[in-house]
Amino acid sequence: MKIPKTIAVLFLLLALLFPLLRLSCSGTEEKVAAETPELFPDITTRAGLLSMRELGNGAVLVDVANPWDTATLLASYLLLDGEKRPDSVPPRQRLAELRVPLERSAVFSAIHAGAIEELGETGRVAAVADAEYFKGAFARGIADSSIADLGSSLSPSMEKITLASPDAFLMYPMQNAGHGALENSGIPIIEMADYMETTPLGRAEWIRLLGRLYGRAAEADSIFKSVESKYNTLAAKASKLEKRPKVLTEMLTSGYWFVPGGNSYMARLITDAGGEYPWAGDKSTGSLQLDFSAVYARAADADIWLIKTYGSDLTLAGLREVYPLNSQIKAFKKGGVYFADTQKVTLYEEFPFHPELLLGEYAAIFSGNTDNLRYFKPVRQ
């Protein structure tokens, strides 16, 4: 089958695969203030960009570090339980106050929607952007108009936002750009920088912030502890494998091949699952934009080739048609190519906050136990 090569499909695949390509940065940078850890102990243990501290009277101080300069804060929030206030709050240059649980939030990513649905709080979401990517209870809510469709996340409808009257936006920050007109709306923007974490468990721990935003702190903490335990058990088992297959990801699309940087959580997943990642020595946390020759020079001998598509099946004939030299990669010749159609499977809705699921899938593929895969399937002729 011929693989679509339009610009629209390219944008879709890249936006889903690497939200890192949509980097932007908003908010005011401020130096992280020195505080007494004993007075304000950090709730989080794995996240590198998220700090949450209980201040008393149900209040929680949330600091989001700037992913592009972690010595500064991207945003700070004071989560308040009703009208109660803490006795004291550490100084912040700008501190957004939020009454929690949120009642009518606007969610701009299906990834966060999956976690919110798992917490059982879909009813607290009034609107979404990029509605075509939402599944499950959110898709049903969009269909019956109980959840408003704001249009594109890059240019949401201000008229629909006014009608939906959200009490907060949950959005990805992007580097060297803001959130446009939304910054002047008077509605708090919660900077969900989870996608910039460098470890799978670091990103997964952001469910603890969602739990506090939606009144499900205990449930979120329990979910994360379970995820952490399962992930560590699987990674420990995979670390004992004697043979580590070389693993290549994605494919050439419209002249570019985007692979995870060596210091990204996706690269870490491959390594923790027992694979050898060709760019493991790279220090980038984002994605690397390469041409075919650069990929071939580093990964022509890849044993496993993992590809994500959106709305299209993948065949070896189609992969060869996209670029004839794809057939020269070892995994192509030896039957080691696997793909996941993310329109049909719940990969993106699940793995950011349940990396143990994708870790287990990778480990199964790397060891040849591919009878009961959750997301991927072998690419055939």
**Globular, elongated, flat, extended or rod-shaped: what is the shape?**
globular
Looking at how many chains there are and whether they match, the oligomeric state comes to single chain
Helix content: 25-40%
Which consecutive residue ranges, at least 5 long each, have pLDDT under 50?
1-29
The sequence of SSEs as H and E is HEEEEEEHEHEHEEHHHEEHEHEHHEHHE
Number of helical stretches of at least 4 residues: 13
Mean pLDDT: 90
Structural class: alpha/beta
Overview features:
alpha/beta, five-stranded mixed sheet, single chain, five-stranded parallel sheet, 381 residues, disordered N terminus, globular
General description of the model:
- The protein is globular, with a radius of gyration of 21 Å.
- It starts with 6 loop residues before the first helix and ends with a strand.
- 30% of the residues lie in helices and 20% in strands.
- Helix 6 (207-213) packs antiparallel against helix 7.
- With 381 residues, it is of the alpha/beta class.
- The strands form 4 sheets. Strands 1, 2, 3, 4 and 5 form a 5-stranded mixed β-sheet that branches. Strands 8-7-6-9-10 form a 5-stranded parallel β-sheet, sandwiched between helices. A 4-stranded mixed β-sheet has the order 11-14-15-16.
- A hairpin with a 2-residue loop joins strand 2 (50-56) and strand 3.
- The model is unreliable at 1-29 (pLDDT under 50).
- The protein has helices at 7-17, 110-118, 136-143, 158-164, 200-204, 207-213, 217-238, 265-272, 292-299, 316-322, 330-334, 347-350, 355-367; strands spanning 30-31, 50-56, 59-66, 69-81, 96-100, 105-107, 125-128, 148-149, 168-171, 189-191, 247-249, 257-260, 287-290, 304-309, 337-341, 377-378.
- The chain contains 13 helices and 16 strands.
